[in-house]
Design goal:
The protein is of the alpha+beta class and 175 residues long. The protein has three domains: 60 residues, no CATH class; 44 residues; 44 residues, no CATH class. 38% of the residues lie in helices and 22% in strands. It is built from four helices and four strands, in the order ββββαααα. A four-stranded antiparallel beta sheet has the order 2-1-4-3, with no helix packed on it. Strand 1 and strand 2 form a beta hairpin. It is rod-shaped and about 135 Å long.
Length: 175
Amino acid sequence: MDMVYMLNRTSSYEDRETGEQIVKNDAIAWTHERCVTSTDPQAQVKVSSNVNGDDWTLVAGYTCSVRPYWETAANLAVVLVSFIIAVLVLCTGIKNQQHKNLLYKMMPKHAVSQLRKGQTVCEKYSCVTIFFSDIVGFTSLVGYDFGFGCPLLTNITTHPFLLSLSTHHMGRPVR
């Protein structure tokens, strides 16, 4: 919003040949943009004075276009940046939810809630046996597409082992 002014002189005289009254309006000084807003009377000042029969008028105020020339571009930039920030926040929320879902798939819920509270998760067991086993040729066998054969083969080979653990109260019960 720029300040502007216009200084005008209005003089009137009688033409000697015709006797007509002639009114002449001259712009004496002005800023580059001469238009002073007329929509808001509070935004302009008008000073009139009569000197030697001439009316001098000084009008000062704001330009007619109250908005700056870059306002449209600035509004567009604000909308664009707001949209980008909203998308980034949404992506961050989605990633956090995916992280949370993965964590719940890998760990028990009580352990995850303790970790989120900043507590240490430590569970003690008095007697633990870790058993690693490998079935010779199992990897090449499951490479073939047998449909339901692969889970069935796994159940058939591990069932006797799990049954013996169950009878000796050393593992989870077999269903």
